[in-house]
Batch of 4 targets.
Target 1
Amino acid sequence: MNKLACFVFVLMAHAIVSSAQTTVRPAGDVKSVTRDGNQLSIQAENACIIIKPYSPSIIRVRMDCRNPGDDFSYAVVGKPQPAETRYSETPDAIFLQTDSLKVVIHKHPFSIGFYTLQNEALNEDEKGLGTSWIGSEVTTYKKLQEGERFIGLGEKTGNLDRAGNGYTNWNADVYGYSISQDPLYSSIPFYIGIHHGLNYGIFLDNSYQTDFNFGASNNRFSSFAAKGGEMNYYFIYDRSVAGIIRSYTYLTGRMHLPPLWSLGYQQNRYSYYPETTVLRIAQTLRGYKIPADGITLDIHYMDAYKLFTWNKDRFPSPSVMTDSLKQLGFHTTVIVDPGIKVEKGYPAYESGLKENIFLRYSDGQNFTGQVWPGWCHFPDFTSVKGREWWKQQVKFFADNGVSGIWNDMNEISTWGQKMPDNVLFDYDGHPTTHLQGHNVFGLEMVRSSYEGARATMKERPFILTRSGYAGLQRYAAIWTGDNRAEDDHMLAGVRLMNSLGLSGVAFTGMDIGGFTGNPSIGLYNRWMQLGAFLPYFRNHTAFNTRSSEPWAFGEDVLDNVRNYINLRYRLLPYLYAAFYQASQDGLPVMRSLAIEYTHDPAIYQPDFQNQYCLGKSFLVLPQESNKQFAKVYLPKGQWYDLYSGVREEGGREKVIELSEKLLPVYVREGSIIPMQSLVQSTTEKPTDTLTLHIYNGRSPNSFVYYEDDGTSYDYEKGIFYKREIRFEPAARKLVIGKAEGGWKSHFTQLLLLFHGFDETATLKVGGKETPAVSDHYSFLPGTGTGGDASTEVKRVVVGNDSGTIEVGF
């Protein structure tokens, strides 16, 4: 009996294990391979697979249990590039090689590995796991390389290095979120892996809920999974992280140049009303001589929160108000939520019904969810007619003098935060459910807002969003949502923005001072200093908090904050050039140190992971507001203290004393930094002299200076002014290249300030010797701000003609 019982137990156990294995369906062995040009179509036991070079450094992998469906994506706009591919096959493997990388496809069972031309493993499927399905969920498992780091993945909390953690992409409305909460508002399923001096990127283009595991709860694999749809990913290789970002933004697009005014200081609150209050805030900013360019109106400007309306009691003359603000040098941005109130006689509702543009249930009835106005319908932005309808409605704002559209609640957010899965989306002719449409709703809303504003507004619009998907950078800036007035939230915001930058989004911001709660005086002061070195400089707080305008925290804070806003405005030529670069190659304005110092382990340490560069030149060292001393890290190279000009050797840690008056900032050796005179808004013209700060160093450097009218689209027709400026230490010269474009620079004179050229007695301008005048320069001039510290410089003034200018030193 014992033997019989044992035999029965073994049979039952085998049956259980076999049943469990069949619930996980691997791709299985390769059965056949066909080749069409450089594309491979592979039939495996349980999967159809398409592998195609998208460029010499990008390989696309598509896998499905059935034949892959229509090739459609909201994220990918880049077209395949020619890639000469060498192909060979053995009974056990298929080999592809471009001029950048090698791909090995194993047949028994199917798995794929990516290698350098020197046969270094970049990324490999985990043996025995590969890609498999559990029900409709598909997961690809990758071998964890020794010491592998993972960065990016968009708007994600946690450490710069994401190893050991898991993340979910499902856009969520998370008011007052914790600094470890996941998911947040947007989904960008793109990350960069780093190991053994190598880098690669993986973009999973699937808008279902996706999950990423970077060795969380296991020591065997990293993985990425989607709750439905294809396994559809792009593998990207480059020797540098910057190159990977360039390739990723080639795929998903790059930002348009924003209006210059959107780079200025923005004063926001939930909410400023009535219009007399709005004008008072603007006039007070001017009275205190605080440079500013924007004021934002939250939901209280509307009639009962109904979109495309004004509350006539609070805002009786919207066009008169926006015109008055423009005369003061301010642009108006208004919030828009997607919900259209269900109310007979309400024009937007009636129009939406007539045009049949709302999301529907599977039985054809319009979906109704509750948000600020009450019960609402929601436009289907994944349909052409839904986007066209919204674009027509946007004319309402253009007619009322509005310059910016702030897209909120577009996760999609409804009270209860549980939108039914059986709501249908058109998905541009690929009908689907909320499960696939949810994560792209915000992306397509800001697409509609951008296209509508571009069609109806006379000048470039500013478009802001809270939610989105990969490719959102083509249409909008993004901010990090409803944060808290806490030190750890300030630093978490820095990491969120750095991660967004690593994920192709260059125009980013956070609510400075915190949206919920009340910052201490020290925290507000420090956060506003930091804001001067962020891409989007927005002060914002909730309705039940204390006032957060610069004058609300006392005279000392006012003086200090004003000096940093002044510095921001003097740096606008530098910032605008950084935005121009982002529009050309996708590199972010705010740059994690992982972009340039990828393989330096120090930058991933918790003490240093918040540090970042603004453009190429400034090293910004964010610190908690209540600390007296801080441990910081200067990467390899030489660095100048921004305020004192003291030069230090990098590649080391140091302890610095903190001052409430100064945000720690350093300048990289060889930097070229253009600055202008102080203005109170971008509608005010600076003087005709552009100051160029040149920092001595051992390595050559270049900077592309860029200028246009800052408002129109004429730059797309070649009406811009651009010139490359090169620092060549070996040749001991600065070369200002010939100007390009059809725009004439506003600046007729160049004031050259040379930092760290201690032994320079003369400068050669156009071959003619000119005495090097010694002088002092302060980046934060003014008494009582700690900004009186100055740096020694050598200066010379030259005419800004359009030809090549050489200055020897």
Note: DSSP finds twelve helices and 54 strands in the chain.
Target 2
Amino acid sequence: MAFRRLFVLPTLLLLLAVVAPLVTGVETLYYRDVLSTHFPLKAAQALLLETKLDSGLDEATLLPLVDPYRAGQALLGNPNALVLYPTSLLLLVADALWTLNAHFWLHLLIAPWAGYWLGRAWGFGRPGAWTVGVAYASSGFFLSLFNLFNMIAGAALAPAFIAATLDATRSEPAASHAARRRRWVLVVGLWALVVLGGDPTLAVATAALAASAMVARDAGSVPVQAILRRLGVLLAAGVGGLLVAAPQIVELARILPRSARGYWRLDAGSILVQSLHPLSLLEQLSPLLFGAVEAGYWGMSLHQGNEPLLASLHPGWAVLALAVAGWPTASRRLRLWAAAWIGVGLFFALGVYNPLAPYLLDLPGASLLRYPVRLWSVVALALAVLAGAGLDALMRGAGHRRYRAVLSVALLGAVLALAGLVLPGAPTIRGLRSLAPERLVPELLAVEAFRWSLSWALLGLLCVVLWALSARWRRAPALAASATLICHLGTQLVFLGSLLDTDAAAPYRRPPEVLAQIPAGALIVHSASQSLFGGPSLPGLDVEERSLIPSVRQRHREATPFFGIGWGRRYALATTPEGLDSFFTVAMRSSMARAEDAQRVRLLQASGVDVLIVPRPVVHDSLHELTTIPGTSPGASLSFVYRVDGSPPPYALIETVRAAPNMSVGAEILASAEFDPLREVLLPSDDAPSDRTPFEDSTLPAGWSVRGLDAPTVDVLHDAPERVELDVEAPRGGVLVATERAWLPVWRARVDDEDSKVVVANLHRLAVVVPPGSHRVALWVDRRPTRAAVAVSLLTLLGLALLCLRRPNRTA
């Protein structure tokens, strides 16, 4: 009871106080990937679920393979959508925005318990084990995940999976067979959740952490054969978890080869982007040293010109002090495990700054190391475990001198840093400004200097308070430990609270006003969100406002895909940054970004686009202005909304074919003034009957014939996201083009009773060649692999349930 009152309750109250606006739905996270990448994926899943609730659920609703609101890109096969992760069930009772935010705050509340379990598995007392959870959940690494929907789940569950592995492999002669089976079932279930959490790199790192923890614990005390046997069982459990997650894995495998990520080999620069610059390690000592997210990060030069993937790596001075205090008193095996993983994490996180990086890139699976700073996860977890060992030691009366020594050095550092701000010449300011003189302009430098002063003053005060509390460790260790953790967590939430920055949710629950001017069912391109017409229209950072909220609200006003999808609007060329959308769509987007305005308009027509939203005026005979969208501040530039004429209907039977040997030539043909998308279609040369020749007797495949000179007609009988049926009257034959659907390798086609090849039309659209005559044409997504994967997953779950329920054999 005392443990819950002194340790658990204060932690949960502090965390709940921070996330209360998200829990109540009054506010929403908004920074970077939250709304720009993950919200539209969740909104699409919610809309698909909502449309089927009244008519009954089916497999296409529960396991949607394509996203109709992004012109048919993959959904289930994209791990970033987390379609199968349990938080998706919240869509049954809540809207997509609340569900999205719940995914974050639920895992923040789970993380301390997962760390506590890991600490107990290493043999810590309850206060020390709880320290592991608090240190990990409040680390800069973990709080930085509050804009990474596809990483926070795996990160939160990683300590629990390692702990479950240690428990399942522990030698306990008194444990019953049923108890051991249940432990292994728990390992399988947690591993499946880590895999479904959306980040393969974190999943691999978690598996390695778990296996190595078991080996480190048992080495020297358990026979080698027993360790190998346990590793074998752990491998089998890992396979079981993959089988549970089979539907997502199978669908990813189906789309990956023809996705941008799978088709294009990533170069070294793409793989090693977001490497850990050595100077970034200074952030271990000073939180948000290079800028806060709400003020705009100014240390881009440390991250190859980008904002950092992880906005902070600061673990907290209390954690560092506890880790140093606990190091000599921790078991040799624990020290070896933690030190090894700190070294491994640092080695890989350095990425491009690691001199061995060129050799590592030649290894199989090197592309998994994209964004190498993600491997800081193992460092954050290892530091948290050492901090738990340190608090355990302090409660036993050990390590007090080392603990105070670290606090003294930290206090001295804070005083020196403050002095460097006020001494003549301000050496601290000069040193920091030299890192980014072009961005750290005088106005922002003054604001940052004030923020640094407050941070270092608060850090110095924290050291004084922790030093004062250290006098209570021997007389009232529980109270001292509880107060230490409360001080640490409170200061971390103050320092890094901007990583959980929120905005009012109400504006995003209202449809953008401009949608009233756009016809329902129109296929939209928002050029600024993909930089298609000369770059983004979003306003830059206002140094006085010190907020990114105006730019995010401007995205809402402009009905970007991030917000329009939530209101059932469909967008073309709305790709996501992880590279799992169709290679052909990404290539078309790249071609458009490089073209001139007139060529861009023709590429839009060939893609079946009806509406263009662009940050500047564009003059073209096929564009007709519908409305304008003013900026959020006086004098801000307008965005323009145009109707695009000359685009073919959603399903068009085209008789004249052009052939292209490659994507570059194809883009030139589509962008040329001679190409008419209403009467011509572009096919890859291998699929094209001829080059710019109508389907006539002389060019038809053997067995085809002309049945008259009537115009072709297309009647849509059924139009669903994953199945289309049409009656086609094709007097001279032609190509049936689904002008608003992306080509994916999961699509199949049938003309009457004959299977037909699905081809790529106009560089990225779905199409099928139709012979002359009247035909029933069907296009559908092949779900046979999905059904097989679901069957495997259900059978695995059934087997796990039977293992839990199985009664031990009784002998007479």
Note: DSSP finds 28 helices and 21 strands in the chain.
Target 3
Amino acid sequence: MLSAFPVLSSLDEEKTVIVARTPLLASVISHEFAQHQMASGHETWERREVYSIDAWLAACWQEVRFSNANIPALLSPLQETLLWQSIIEDDTPGLFDPAATARLARRAAAVMAQWQIPVEHQGWDDHQDGGRFLGWWTQLRARCREQDWMTRADLWGALPEWMERGIYTPPAIASAGFIDISPALNKVLQRLPKHRVLGTRTISVAKRVPVIDCADFGAEVETAARWARARFEDSPDECLGVFVPDLAAHRSLVERTFNRIFYPAAALRFGAPVADCVFHLHTAAPLLEHPLVNGALVLLELARYRIDQAAASTIVRSRFTRGSLAERDQRAIADLKLRRDRNLDVSLRELRRAAEQCPILLSNFQKVDSLVHARAARQSLGEWSRFFADLLEAVGWPGDFELTSDEQDVVELWKESLSTLATLGLVTRTVSFEQAQTQLRRLLGGTTGIGRGDLFSPVQILDASDADGLQFDAAFVAGLDDATWPPVIDVSPLIPLRLQRECGVPASNQPSIQNERKRLTQALFAAAPSVQVSYSEQMAPIARSFVASNRSRPALWKGKLPVASFEYGATIAIDDTNAPPFVINGDVRGGTSIIKSQSCCPFKAFAEIRLQARTQEDGCFGFDARERGGFLHQAMELVWQELKTQARLKATTESQLREVIANVVRQAVDVQRDGVSFAQVQAAERARLEVLIYEWLTTVEAARTVPFTVEDVEREVTVDLSGLPLNVRIDRIDRINNGSLILIDYKSGKQSKTKLECPRPEEPQLLVYAAAKGAEVEGVFFGQLRPRELRLPGIARDRHIKGPQIQVLGDKWDEMMEAARLEVARIAQDFLDGKAAVDPVKHGVCNFCTTAPFCRISEHRAADEDDE
């Protein structure tokens, strides 16, 4: 890649400083100078001073400051932005995004300085946002005078003054790439003792270049990558340019596509080389997205009073801490222990308790504990920077794994970011941990991570708006759609447009915008002698005059992408619907859940019961459904131990009944747990149960037409089904006046009698209980304790309960019970035989399955679709 300025060789022997319009152009000129020196046979040479205009102004300040201590301190761009933000937040506390507003304000201040927009002008009075900005600007100027600071915008007026006073004598200057000369820049250039403008190469804008119509933008990027590889293989010495509008937004797609095209085999190595990459992407992922940095930010959560459960789990299992490899298994167990409490957040003390079997991790947490207790609630950003570094050192970040060279570079960038954070303390007051963490994340989000390749790479991928001043041997322009090109050219919204037009600010009027768009488009087509263009939707009208009417296909690389580069291995179809037979060795754990799981889906029973497969616990606020169901069962057990019969229930007064319910609920919901809001959650659960149980007893139980006595609650019995011994617990057994038994199973979810229908009943527990009790049973019911839907659906010999939710079988009752007994015995036998087919009784079963990572239901459904 070359710049459009061919006179660099004539400056070799001169001490001329080159000042370019943009940082990219300055980098390209420095790279071109190095190439020229190497081509001349030089092994060493004096570095050419090449700066962007902003960097040159800062270098001038540094030289003046070195010789004159009275010069104010120059704020960094980040310090300026943070100073703007603090002023804006103090003046407008309710502003939605003060950080973004601060960036706009800093940019507006720079425009004012460069184009010498007057402060005293009536145009400010007619612009509400402009008036507010002017107030902020006045406060910032006062703050800078008070603290003896100066901003980058102040350098435009200060530099000519320093030259007039003789405290700064500039060297010979050569400027490159400047298009619109602002009044401030013109004032600086006029005071230079020796200044020349670098001439440009004779550039002929390509006419009628070939164009490719692609299906979508992804296809355009792939076409550009295949074109670049084909050109590179034919002419390795060529420098190729690929231009993409809004490259930063499409970075992931572009990088992924070029990586697949240039390094198909890298799919086996999980990444292509970075330092020696053939292509150079002129944008990189923010440092915030790198796993090492993201892991560090998660570890900083240890400084909080309460740590989010997901973050706590990540911290326990993090590979970026000391001892993570040695204690890998123990830490996985510690994570499971932590999850079993199902808290939404945890304290450092709870983390230490979970890590009792992990001595290295426990030691890490103890060091963190001492640091956290020693810190103040509010500190300067410099103090927070040291605290962050100390905390990460306490846990052993970045871990025991050997770092790659790229990861080592990331660690150094992280340290530089902490140092930068410390410098921001110059312009801020003391802040809280949350504010410091937010500032650090914002800083990392704006810091570029490790990119691919460099300026010496043969293929350069740039944003389409950066083409001006660059030259290549061949170029490809992708994405020339009317939706993406030309780019939006913004003007400052904080300065009245009228003032910007009067002062000649670029893009402040329509002719200026059109000229800028035309210039950017011409720069694309002048970037190389050979240019190729593609689009996918509607070609941008401004580009149509440059392209040919016919559609041509350039020479493209015809190789395979990674997905097609390797042959598929031979597959062997194995029928794995049957597992080895179940061997009974001692007590069988699971009870009726074995029959339920086997009936709902055989594989579910195999995975949950035999493989003990479980998903990890999720945090919840208060009590989860399982806990609430347990409280309900225990409260109903206690209440019927007190009431015994329906007659006793009816004879109890409302106040007495409410007192009984309150007592049993208090006993049932008796849980000790940390958390500032747990007492309120517990009180809410008790209140919910009291209302629910009272309504159940008075509207359902008291209304039953056949008197009953509660003979047993939570009765444990042993049932033998086809040789499978099951320990089952019956929620409730009622004895009715004819001596028969009614079985009730409490449920807090919605139930229906169809869930008892064979074959493969969805809720077979009641049928298992009935098989255990034998011929005495005359009815099986679900006790649906669901707010506003209290009922007793089920099946019985006679109508013991009013309502359509009851199925009365009469003489067919015995036949149904025998069929149900045989069905649950068959299901038990299937489990013993090892039948483990993926065969859910209905789709809804999969919604709450805990064995999804093991399940093959997706493959089965895909096969069924193929068969159709």
Note: The CA atoms of residues 287 and 449 lie 4 Å apart.
Target 4
Amino acid sequence: AEELLGSLVARGSVVELEARTELGELLFLRGRLEEATRELYRLIDLYNERDRLTASELVAVARAVRILGRDDPQLFKDALKAFDEAVAADPADPEPRVRTAVLFLEKYDSGEARTSLQPVLERNPNHPEALLALARVRRFDGSPEARVLVDRALAVNPNLVSARVFSGQLLLELELFDEAREEAERALQVAPRSLEALSMLAAAQYLADEPEAFAATERKVLDANPRHAELYNVLAEACVQNRLYRAARDFAAQSIRLDPKSWRGWGELGLNQLRLGEMAEGRRSLETAFAGDPYNVWLKNTLDLLDTLDGYRVVPWGRFELVLHPAEADLLAPYVGSLAEEAYDYLAKRYRHEPPTPIRVEVFKEHEDFSVRTVGLAGLGALGVSFGPVIALDSPAARELGGFNWGTTLWHELAHSFTLGVTENQIPRWLTEGLSVFEERGGRTGWGDDVRPEFVQMIADGSLLGLAEFNDGFVRPTFPGQVVLSYFQASLICELIDREWGFDKILQILEGYRQRKDTETIFREVLGLELEAFDAKFSGWLAQRYASALPSFPPRPKEGTREPATGEVIGLGRGPDPAALEAWAKRSPEDFRAQLAWGTALYRDRRYDEAIEYLERAKRVFPEYAAEEGPHHLLARIHREAGRKSDALRELETMTGINEFAYRPLLDLAELYGELDRPAEQAEALERSMYIYPHDVDPHRTLAELYERLERPAAAVTEWRAVAALRPASRAEALYRAAANLARTGDRRGARREVLRALEIAPGYEDAQVLLLDLTESSS
């Protein structure tokens, strides 16, 4: 090929520009980077000498300057300009639009990529390269459509090597390493020396723990191109997708050793250094990457985030390093630090493992900053993430009240640090997520996901995924909400194993994954069951566990969508035909949906005595349903309004014992405990509310006074300091009360410090003056 292309270039062929681009790309693929660069710069000279170029020649120029962008990033603009000129020269030619989309996606701009592809697919919905490019965009956006689109591309052209490679990458994300290897081998049947396919094959072999095969493929790539940095970039990306952050960092370092201008390699190195808590090193790597590729949105956003983090306060706390917004640090540090220490002790005993410390915990006041920390872009819907030595999560101020429990999120993410550590990061996604949700339930009353009607509907439909395909529900969901339901299902799998076989079996399963065994082998060896037999046992257990609720959710037609109709429960009672609702409820006394629908309608009409009958039936049929629009909460409101405090208390206790987000119901529960003069229970309810939203001053004040009454001065200090951190008008009083309680604990130095802070605010505060005098005299 090199000889033929050289001949076309040498004799000034009519396709000289295209041939020179092909030659430059070929030299680049063979690792002769300096020769490739010289050849491609000559093409730019030809471009500048000619007045008019065809669309094909303009595409060739754009391809050339895109490669040269590694030396001069401003040439990426020239590439876009040339692609645009090619579109203008031949609007029917799809190639410049497809290549433009790929370039935008390389810079993490999926919106512009979609815009470029739209005209191509409108003209030809089956254009394979456009379908592949759109599949890449959909994967970037987190859409399950990526799998469908790449399959469509391969249906049109089964020999499209890049599509085979991309299909394999999707399979690697699902931890289906054998299937990914098969896709790479299909690609290599078409193009045996494809570095793209060989690199993906190497990734599949590495993740499948096939060191000899991996080494052979690695040698084959480097024999073809001793400077092929992309091999290690592909390996680094595959490792990140499988939570192998240290391996990803080390592969990225190999990439830049081969090619110091591999800006992707520098970026992968920096991002993984940050994931491992190597903050200074990560910043330096990212600055190098951004200097070489300043149009990369992920790099820019991450560097901007690091500038933001420079303004955060770092608070050492035992085995943790807390990184908190300065406006929240005084308030959150005691809560985050003490809960993290408690969770560490609990999990270390459970897993017989102690992750290296300090563990860095970053709490982001702005959700967009958290998103950038985790995926480089704003808008991620997750609440927290664990990289092992680094945990990141939203501050309670970053999320809507009632949809986020920061305490259970921190506990969940710290559990990841343990399960990743004990398996050396070899744990499958479904199990690490399932164990984290399962462990939440050991943190506080009500923590851990609770069952949703949609989940019961999936049990009835028989549409829950089995273990062999379970990762699909996390990585490639087929309907909105499947990821959340998969988390809950995974936690129940862990619960069943713990109940039936004991927690030691879970530890043995984790050890099996550390040894790089597959799920089928592990379950056979540890539990004595094939996967299908375990699935059957799990299904039977679910049917028994939710036996009372299942009759309310009859199976739906198989040919319909697999997405459960959440509207069957959520929002019932708002229909325009009350008579139909009443008739449904009366003819279906064991149907949860019917009872809740009519009970809710009666409640809204303030027909409380009638509503109780139907809400009680709904509760009996599906007692685990504890949403705020569920029977427990509605009954609590009815009983409270009627003055039946004990009945209201019972409903609120049940609801908040299931629903981890029930902030207002927890405050109502605390108020009821107060009215019944049960201070210990009142304090416990308020404590739980702090893990949802600690930014209201009144609950802190009430809790501080309760601690004083219960003779718990150390706890009272924390609460009075929280009151002071929220800066109410009575801040001096809060500091004085903190000082008084410190004195009761014997910490006179701390008491003196707090009372002086109170007197700085209110120099004439008589009680504070008296306390200071007492502390001074006692010291003397």
Note: Confidence is low (pLDDT under 50) at residues 560-571.
